[in-house]
Design a protein that fits this description.
Rossmann fold, 7-stranded mixed sheet, alpha/beta, binds 6-O-phosphono-beta-D-fructofuranose, 4-stranded parallel sheet, 11 helices, 2 domains, single chain
Length: about 325
């Protein structure tokens, strides 16, 4: 019987891997770190953790990670490695300092957990210094091409729904019109999914043109049917502005509505990852290490239709993952 450890054919002589989290944190990042560490340990690799993403790489904030150090973290939100958005890493001087620390620790390859900005940095760095890097998509925004879901998205949607359900109770009791703002600077995945799941009357996404006239029309139709309260969901990056701005316009034009605004904000980023995110993060962390050992680099480990798919950083970053038009249409129909 074949030795289990020979199951993954090693095509590289990678011996030391470092993992880091960068950009906005997302629930499930710890599960991904755990998977990277444990898969690396399984292959007898030495594994290091870089704290605060590229900031820590530049400052040399790098420590050895052992299997036992990632025990009891799979359920925890945030990231044990901390995170940051580094301006310095965007400069050649910053990246040169970062590489000095990578070389000083004899690190052969990197696993980058994060979103768009993280992979933009990783893509430049791996080409500049010829160091293998695989990305793991961790962002609540779900705005990366090459994976059905990103780590943290599902949990964030569920957090938003929980908030919407609570708001619905009070909106209903007082016959109020609530504008609820969710995260998503450039992407409406949270807004669309939370909007559908919470029966929102209208969903404002950055990708779709929803006019305030349209909103007022549908609110008036609802009023004719004796609909006494409504929830409107607004992605922070939508074309009409934030929830407060839209609420102010509606109030000005229809003063009889009692409007209220609720911004869910960073509540969506924290909290324990749900089962879907824990499984997804475990798969992606595992496949990131397997990919590096198989000689892959400059790619993101995504899961599409439950199967691993490696997508070049340039595509993961540049190609847009569109909202499903049929879902957008369905949301409109079901809200009538
Ligand atoms: O990219 C993830 C995200 O949560 C966005 O949805 C949001 O606009 C942004 O991060 C907020 O970033 P910060 O925590 O730096 O304010």
């Amino acid at each position: 019987m074949a030795n289990e450890k020979t199951a993954t054919e090693k095509k590289t002589d990678i011996k030391r891997i470092a993992v880091y989290t960068s950009g906005g944190d997302a629930p499930g990042m710890n599960a991904a770190i755990r998977a990277v560490v444990r898969t690396a340990a399984y292959h007898d690799l030495h594994i290091y953790g870089i704290r605060r993403g590229y900031e820590g790489m530049i400052k040399g904030d790098i420590q050895r990670l052992e299997t036992k150090m990632v025990g009891n973290i799979i359920h925890r939100g945030g990231t044990i490695l901390k995170t940051a958005r580094s301006m310095e890493f965007m400069t050649p001087e910053g990246r040169s300092l970062a590489y000095e620390n990578i070389a000083a620790n004899d690190i052969d390859a990197l696993v980058a957990i994060g979103g768009n900005g993280t992979f933009t940095g990783a893509s430049i760095f791996q080409k500049e210094y010829n160091i293998p890097i695989i990305g793991v998509p961790g962002t609540i925004d779900n705005d990366l091409y090459g994976t059905d879901n990103t780590i943290g998205f599902d949990t964030a949607v569920n957090t938003a729904i929980e908030a919407m359900d609570r708001i619905r109770d009070t909106a209903d009791s007082h016959n109020r019109l609530f504008f609820v703002e969710v995260m998503g600077r450039h992407a409406g995945f949270i807004a669309l999914n939370a909007g559908i799941s919470s029966g929102a009357a209208k969903i404002f996404c950055p990708e779709t043109e929803t006019s305030i006239d349209e909103l007022i029309n549908s609110l008036q139709k609802g009023a004719r049917r004796k609909k006494l309260f409504s929830l409107v969901i607004v992605a922070e990056g939508n074309l009409n502005g934030g929830a407060q701005k839209i609420a102010d316009i509606v109030k000005e034009r229809c003063p009889h509505y009692e409007t209220k605004v609720s911004i869910i904000g960073h509540l969506q980023r924290g909290g324990s990852p749900n089962a879907a995110d824990r499984v997804l993060a475990s798969q992606m962390g595992y496949y990131a290490v397997e990919g590096l050992l198989a000689g892959r680099s400059g790619v993101m480990a995504g899961i599409v239709n439950n199967k691993i798919r490696y997508t070049a950083f340039k595509d993961a970053i540049k190609k847009t993952k569109d909202l499903d038009n049929e879902m957008v249409k369905m949301a409109e129909i079901l809200a009538r």
